[in-house]
Structures are given as C-alpha cells and as structure tokens.
Amino acid sequence: MTRLTEIVMMNILQELKEIVGDRVSASPGEMCCYAGDASQVVGLPDFVVRPESTGQVSRILRLCSEHLIPAVARGAGTGLAGGCSPVRGGIVLDMSGMNRILEIDIENQQAIVEPGVIAEKLNSALKPYGFFFPPDPGSLAMCTIGGMISYNSSGMRSVKYGTVRNYVLDLEVVLADGRVIHTGKKVLKSSAGYDLTRLFVGSEGTLGIITRAGLKIAPMPRTRKLVLACFDEAENAGRTVIRIFSSGITPSACEILDRTTLQVLKLCDPMPAIPEDGDVILFEVDGTESSTSEAVRQISEICQPTAKSVRIADGPEMDGIWAARRLVGAAISRLDPMKTRIYMGEDVGVPIKEIPALIKKVQQIAAKLDIPAMKYGHIGDGNLHVALFIDVMNKEQWEKLLLAADKIHRAAMELGGTVSSEHGIGLARAEYLPEQVGTEAFSVMQSIKKALDPKGILNPGKMGL
Amino acid sequence: MNLDLRAINQCVRCGSCRTFCPVFEESGWESANTRGRIMILKALTCGLQPDSQVLDSLNTCTTCGICTENCPAGVNPPEMIESARRQLVSLGKMTRQQADLSRNILASGNTFAESSDRLSWLTDRSLLTKKADYVYFVGCMNSYRYTETAANTFALLHRFGATILPKELCCGSPLLRTGFDARRFVDENCRQIAETGARTVITGCAGCYTTLKKSYPQDFRVQSVPEFLALHISQLDIAQLDLTVTYHDPCHLGRHNQIYEQPRRVIEAICRLKEMKTSGKAARCCGGGGGVRAGYKDLSLQMARKRLEDVPDGVDYIVASCPLCIRNLRDAGAGEKVIDLVDLVAMAVR
C-alpha cells in the first residue's frame, strides 16, 4: 500500500463525510493528535473518523477494503505499544464516541457495552448493583473497554480475577471486508466451534474492529484489606511472594513498589501514607470480614521473618495507596523534572518463581548501563513494570535506553517469560514475537491474519503481521 | 516556534487529562484535550503550520487547570498553552475573535468596548478618597454589567477604608489569557494604585485576582473579596438567612490560587451550604475562562450547562465569586439563581 494521492484523498474524504457527517477530519493538527499513544511509535494518519454505529464502521471498512486503505482502530489512545499508531497512514477510527452501556443484566451476570465505554464508568454503573468488571489496569479512569479487549489488558487484581480474556463472552466484530459477525452468545459458557471470542481478544485490531462486547461481571467483595511488607532488597521481597503463593493464599492483588517508586509516590500530591523506606510489597485480600482477617494474619506471619516491617491498612488509607499506585507509572518526572519516563521494556513477565531472578537481571542491566530504573508491578502474576527514565534531549541516554529495553525483553524470554504481560505487542515489541512464540506458531498467526484480512488493511505492521 | 521543549517532553501522553478536560467532553476530538494540545505544541516546534484548526485547539482551552491538578507527571498545561498563544500572536497568528477582543480592549480600556463612565454605578463620588489603605479593584464585568454587585462590594469595603481608582483600566486578564501584551494597563493601574498609598488591592473578580497577583509587580498585596470577607465577617452585623446555597469554585480562585475555604466560611456564617457534585480542587469549570467565552460562545455555554448539572437539589442560590462565571452560568439557563458572594452578604447585613 502506498500513501494516497491528493485526488484519491479528496474522494475518500467525501465518501467518509457521507458516512459519518462532520465526524471526520483531515486537518494536519488533528492528525498530529492521533499519531500514536504513550509509546514512542508514531505515524500520521490521512483521516480520523469518529464513528457512532456498527453500520458506519462496516461502511468505512468496506471503503478501506475497496481502496486498500489501512484502517487503525483506537480507543482512548492510552496504549503503551503503539497499537493504535497509524504507522502506514490511512484511516484512524476513533471508537471512543461509541460509548454507551447498552445493558446491565444482573440476573445473567453480564453487561453489554459499546467499545468506547471507559472502564471506570462501567464500574460506576455496576456499583449500585454490587457488581464490578474485575480487570483493572492503571489507566482504568481513561482507557476504553474496546482497547482493553484488543490488548487483553488486566491490572492489579488479575492475580486473583484473571485478565480481560476471562470476562469476554461475546463480541460484535466488523471484519476487514465490512461483514459483521458475533463471536459468542449471551451465555456464561459455550462449547460450540472455534473460540472466536478468544481469537479476537488481544488481536490488537489486526483481525477486525470490535463494535460491541458482552462482558461477564462479578459481585463485589464485601471487604478488602491490605498488608504492606517492607524489605531491604527487592529480591527478598520476590522470594517472600513465592512463599505466600506456595502456602495456598491467593491475594486479590500483589504489587511490588521498589524504593525508587516509593520516592516518586512521596512526591505526589496528596502524598499517600507509605512512610516505609525499602522495597514494599502490597498484598491485598478480599472476601468476607473473617476470611480477609485470616488471610491478613497468615500473610503477615509469612512476611515477618524476612521483612523489615509489616503493617495492615484498610479504608481510605488503602484507597489512597491504590489511587497513587495507579498513576505512579507516569509520575516519575516528579523525581527529576529533567527526565521523562519512556515506555519501553516496561511490561515483561516471567513464571512467578523466576521473579527474583528477573529483578536481579533488571538491576544488573540498569546498573551496567547507568540508567535509572523504577520497578513496580504485579509481582503476584510475574509481571514486572520497569520504568526507565531519561533526559529525552540527550542522544546518548536514548541509546542506552534502547539497549536496556532490549536486554530486559531478552532477559524475560530467557527466563521462560513474555515480552508483554498486559500491554500488548503493537509495533514496539513486534520484533520479539516470532522469537517468543516460535516460528511455527508465528506462521499460524500469519495464516489466521491472511484468512481474516487478506488485503492486509487492518492495523498493518502490528504484531509483525 | 520556540516553545519550551522540556515542558512539552514532560508529558508522557498517558491520557489522564482526557478524563477531566471539560472541552474534550463536549468535543470528543483529541485536539480538544490537553494531551492533544501538547502534541500540537510539539508538532509546532517541528514545522506544523498554525492553521485555523490549530488555533482553535489552543484557544478552546479554558485554562481551568483541572488537567494540572490531575496530571501524574506534574505538567502545567495552562502555562504552556498561554505561552504558545503569546508566541502565535507575536507571529500574527490569531483568530478574528482574538484580534477583535484585543483591538476593543486596547482602544477602550475595557472588555466591552464601552465608552461610558466606568463608575456610573457609584452614586456618591465623595466616598472616593485620594489616599486609602485598600483599593477596591472593580474590574470590567462588575463596572459595566453587574453594577449592583460593584455597589454592594464597595459599600462593604468602604467601611474598612477602601477607595477606588479614579480611572481604573481593564486589569489586562483577557489580553494576557489570549496571548497579547497588557503592559500599558498594568503600568497605568499600578501608577494609580501607588498614588493612593494603598498596600492592599481587593478584587471581586477571579480573573482580575489572578492577574493582579501573578502578572503585576509585587508592590502591593492582592486579596480576593472572599479572603477579605472571611477575615472581617465577624465585624459585620450579619443576620442568619433561612437559605440553602451551593458554591461554584471559580478556577482562577480555586485551582489557580487555592482559595477554597474562605468563601465557604463566609457562606456558612450566613446560611446553609450544600456542595456541588464536584467542588474544590475537582470543581468543573464553568467554561467561560481563557478567552473561550469570547471566542467560542456556544462551546462555552455547553460547558456551563454541564456545570449546572452539578448543582444539588433544593438550593436557593448558586453562589460564585467571579463575574465571568456568574455570567456564563446565568446565560446557560440558571438566570438570577446565580449570585455573587457579595450579594449574599449584602442580603444578610443588617
């Protein structure tokens, strides 16, 4: 596919106007705003459209198919892998305007939503019923359900509740040629044919564009409690986490905040109450009053021999700690205004028992390259977020960053892990996918892509496809 | 363009601001939220031409500061936006509305291009003294549109020895917010303030307040009317009113200057206060600031209508302490239910 000529551009613009009215733009300034997400992957689209219905999306994809125009779906643009970056131009479909909660069906424990619904807004709507949508990425307040599904995102509570994949029952998807399919039914389980729902979850807009989702929802736990255990070394903390899980306890969240992360949190306003100095593990348990009290007691007991300190938090203090934790990834420049956090090598995951080894490797990589690294993340499911931060106007630091990110990705794969636990592949990690999944498995992915998108118009270049 | 790349690079494009930006909520386009505007600023440093869409993106920011309040990376977008507006104006890049606004203010000395007497509301000019401890800086809005509020304010402040500048000019806020130079107004107002010998200038307009405080030489103390009243309420003979009111935090008093508690203290000395759905640091903008009301009236009123949805049930009045907010909320449908804090105090003074 080549960039569009001016005459074709004008014709396409006219056709897009006929489909979406004034919800289309080709202005250079607007195109800059849709160049990418929070990653370093950028590309200028030729047009941005903000569809309002499945019918419009279908007509747009038919147009793209006919003229071989790349079509890139986008939610809130909060991704970290360049998944929505239109690296080959074409049309960006901003799906955030399709943001209706169509149905909340408590009897069937389901919610039917459009893809542009913000995750937190769904939870606000479910709260009066005593239910929630468990996957909770740090970007919960701004990311869309469509984006979450496309990247199989998860978050702090995935250690107990799993990832988005566990909660999608049915998808309405517009295929590359404009056909509209449903991948499931309004049932909690189904054993009918290939699991197309799971195929589309995590497919990053390379196989179709999601226009509606049937989601499983869960009852909210009656209570939550938090154990804060502080350690001298992150590796020690990692070993304690393994002991907790081996003893049969499954926390609802299990997060590591290294000492650099705590320094950043202390600079946030309002400052949350984590006075500890060291590497902290946050163990959250949920359930009934008695079950959480017992779990808290057991976790505290296991932590005591190796931890510097152990204490329990709940209520507003716990809420404040979680709120700060959600934002800490972007807050690093509070530590040094000359430096910016760059999302690269930020989402590796390994089998839980390899967490201490991963932490050690990351520390060695950062020390050897003399590049500061903040480590935090979902240690309970083996997912470590490494925040590398540099002076972006310093070329040498950029080079070090790229090298560090590459080494971190390779370290995770050497430990039997993944280059992305929840942020996706996009273009930022595309080079690693064949190596991680193996060439044969990757060729199967290529075949699937070819079958569903023979012209290669859907988010071309992403995932190495 | 020579924009502050350090500040631009501080934004990690996490998109937190999407959740809060009141303009984006109405528009839905990325260029209408803070992250998009910062991406445009970056593109301007790389050769993007400032066409009308770019100007609209930058000029529709109300500079309300709710993005600053919630930015995890500690970015201060209103500062960046105002700086960009200044540079664009210096390059001759501005909208027709911007050009009209600046021409009118520079020619007339006020926001409304009024040629009439700025003190027409003052019935007894003998109350003006040449020397005083306090100057009441009236502002364009109250001088020409809410003259009763101006009269009520002066009636209260005069008891404490305040005077008014004989030839007050616009504080310069609309010029500064939209990218123009206001030095002539700053210098002239400063000269007159110095002549009175006053050490404190009090204003009932949030826009004037932030301008006097941040863009004027620090030769005198600046107080907002809510701050002054909170300090002196016990010296006024106040009757308790059987009213329930809510309070709208003007962005330029609240987020820009952290004046949250004082107006509430004054209200609670008079009647019952019932908070809005969003208040204090989280208060939704009325949509009127940053030159948006002047340049994009429809958008501005849409935001004001959204703000009115935050008003709790069962209140008699919506109280604010900024005539710009008052006008926008009134025009958005709340009418006379929106009053100035001073007007509430005036009702209660025996």
List the defining traits of the structure above.
heterodimer; A: 465 residues; alpha+beta; Uridine Diphospho-n-acetylenolpyruvylglucosamine Reductase, domain 2; Uridine Diphospho-n-acetylenolpyruvylglucosamine Reductase, domain 3; Vanillyl-alcohol Oxidase, Chain A, domain 3; 3 domains; 5-stranded antiparallel β-sheet; 15 helices; globular; B: 350 residues; alpha/beta; Rossmann fold; 4-stranded parallel β-sheet; 18 helices
Annotate the secondary structure layout.
The complex is a heterodimer of chains A (465) and B (350).
Chain A: H1 6-20, E1 24-25, H2 28-33, E2 47-49, H3 54-67, E3 71-74, E4 91-94, E5 101-105, E6 110-113, H4 119-126, E7 131-132, H5 145-150, H6 158-161, E8 168-174, E9 180-182, H7 196-200, E10 209-216, E11 218-219, E12 223-231, H8 234-246, E13 253-257, H9 259-267, E14 279-287, H10 289-303, E15 309-313, H11 315-327, E16 340-342, E17 348-349, H12 355-369, E18 373-378, E19 383-390, H13 395-414, H14 433-437, H15 439-452
Parallel strand pairs in A: 2-4, 3-4
Antiparallel strand pairs in A: 1-2, 5-6, 6-10, 7-11, 8-9, 8-10, 12-14, 12-15, 13-14, 13-18, 16-19, 17-19, 18-19
Helix pairs in contact in A: 1-3, 8-12, 12-13
Chain B: H1 5-10, H2 22-27, H3 34-45, H4 52-59, H5 66-70, H6 77-90, H7 96-108, E1 134-137, H8 140-144, H9 147-158, E2 162-163, H10 173-177, H11 183-196, E3 200-203, H12 206-214, E4 221-224, H13 225-232, E5 244-247, H14 261-270, E6 272-273, H15 292-295, H16 297-308, E7 317-320, H17 323-334, E8 338-340, H18 341-348
Parallel strand pairs in B: 1-2, 1-3, 3-4, 5-6, 5-7, 7-8
Helix pairs in contact in B: 3-6, 13-14, 14-18, 16-17
